[in-house]
Amino acid sequence: MNSIITAKDLCLWYGSAQALKNIDIDIPEQSITAFIGPSGCGKSTFLKTLNRMNDLVPGVKITGRVRYGKQDVYAPGLDVNLLRKEIGMVFQKPNPFPMSIYDNVAYGPRTHGVKGKAKLDDIVERSLRDAAIWDEVKDRLKKNALGLSGGQQQRLCIARALAVGPKVLLMDEPTSALDPISTSKIEELAMGLKEKYTIIIVTHNMQQAVRISDYTAFFLLGELIEFGGTERLFSQPERRETEDYITGRFG
Amino acid sequence: MQNSSISTGRKLYIRLMKGLCCLSAAITCGVALFLIGYVLVKGVPNVTWELVSTKLSYLDGTIGILPDILNTVYIIIATLLIVLPLGVGAAIYLTEYARNKRLVAVIEYAAETLSGIPSIIFGLVGMLLFANTFGSCLLAGALTLVIMNLPTVMRTAQESLKTVPQSYREGAFGLGAGKWRVVRTVVLPGCVDGVVTGCILSAGRILGESAALLFTAGVAHTLNDFFSGLGSPGATLTVALYLYAREPRPGAAEASFAIAAILMALTLVINLAAALAGRYFKKRSAL
Amino acid sequence: MQKQQRLAETIIHGVFLLLGLVTVGCVLLITVYLVLSGIPAIRQIGLVDFLLGDTWESTAAEPSFGILPFILTSVYGTAGAILFGVPVGFLAAVYLAKLAPPRVKAVVESAVSLLAGIPSVVYGLVGMLVLVPGIRRLFHVPDGASLLSAIVVLAIMILPSIIKVSVTALEAVPSEYEDASLALGATSIETYFRVSAPAAKSGIAAAVVLGVGRAIGEAMAVMMVSGNVPNMPSLFQSVRFLTTAVASEMAYSSGLQRQALFSIALVLYLFILLINAALNFFLKRDKER
Predict the structure, then answer these.
(1) pTM of the predicted protein model
(2) Cβ contact (<8 Å) for A93 and C180?
């Protein structure tokens, strides 16, 4: 397996509180990796170090190393904006911009300098198709995105993230605000997307991790306790803490 | 990642917009600084004890602004005395008594409309309503200002009433207190901060007001005590500034600058007071 | 005892109801008075001649009362003030809401409150003694007291309202929108202008409308810098606004002239009501979000 993202000895502090402790991980490409663990375990924080969204939080200090391919993510000369173009993100709460569906998807490409209606039309259609929402919205591309249902909004957000052509898609509990039917649609979508993309998904829901992920990482109190193939991790956990968690003894 | 940084076009756009934002903020600050500096430099040397302690004398050809200062003080006091009960009462009605949502909407819409009306219109209506019935005098001016400041006082009182926790009221009702008793003992003390803020804001507005007073309070520069002042016409500082600014009389321009400096200093004081009051009440309500 | 108390409560309730209705009464009173005193002159002069007549000679032997010059001056003056004031105000608001470090923000904000608190006669005085001669010298015109001076003064005077309302609107934009934009690889500046500002557009529109209301209603400052001659508006000529038309002749007017001044006030009032309605529309739309 080829790894696409590697973290080495990664630590993160919010002010004086340490939120991540010496994380070492190699995330394989074109697969789905799930981050699981109880709330406050650092799984979302770690996710956000991968596209440097933590930079926005005041008082954050990070040591150690994160690599995306050969690129050092925290190298001083690196352009964060181009990094985020490569590593897209989908948030917990669907957050389409208060604009038309078309403009939502076209926002990223436009920002990165794509011009011309034909080109944009093409990208918008392709992204919406990839996000399995094209058929539902193709007749109302000019309508405000806030008129869509929650599940549709989340798939639109996925389309928006795909439109800039990322290699990696970070998903931060993308279904926690959705109903079961919308959730299963997003799960199906994620499984289809791993043909082309590497997906890292933070989830609260262990069934979800089992259903869709190839690899699972278990976090506890800022530490990466265990990482491995999902089937193996859930059937034969190596660590006591993992077993306690997946058997529901805490969390 | 093929490229190492975003395109030059984007960089230019970012730099341009950032520059424009900073420039605009700088212009705003620059204008404010210039206004303070210019008015104080031109005005302060003209603020003499003689100017602020005497009245205008056509015989000696000297200008004194004591009457104008007193008129300003009188009109602020008179306006606040009338507008406070009205505004706070209206706020209490809206937050404590009103059950009819439609009526609340109508009252709030009226308040919004009132706060959007230009002062020259208040001046005109004040002239028709008050000055034409009992002559132009400070009281006519004060009544006009009452209408103008009513929305401000009402809104600030309303805001602070909203911060009185519902549990206090429930607690008082639970003890078997009547509505009026609850309002008097629990709700009214809770809106002191709103009243203070409303007073400061209104005082600032009255201090700066001129168009509404020109035809209601009159333009005389005579020395009066509070009660005879209310019944006789008199110019406030702003009106006096306006009158002296267009007078060719020697010393008039200096007098208007002196008044401008005094007004500017008072504006600074009022802004400071408003900021301090805001901070104080915020701290207190956080406790 | 019980009965007495209930009676007292009813009376107190009634008193508060009356106090609550004072505002409504004031608005009605103002409206009725303006309509009653504004209609007669319009009737006598004729609505078309009054609104569209281009000469105002109220004290001539054969007086004519056309207020088109005032209407146009007010419209142009306001438009000019908006043209200068809105971009500066909006950009300064973006700076304050998104870019400024906390300390700098506090300083700029106090400058903004100061600008809001300065009495209009002080603006007028400084305009009269700095701006008017400056414009005369800069553009080599015979008199600097002109529409342009008024526009500059008005643009400065509306800045604080535009800045304050826009800052509130920009700060209310949910951070999720901004996060989404940043996660797509947009820079923070691109995010503020392409996501935050469009998301705050109702609030910013309200700021503009508020600015329009302030500008069209300002009297004293404008009176001191605009020369106050009832010309048709032109950038370097002395002009008279709706507000200053009322203020400048009221002191000595009588008869039809006086009534015509009330009619002007009525026209101004209608403008303001229209602006208020627009303001309400934008604010309401913002709240519904």
Answers:
(1) 0.91
(2) no
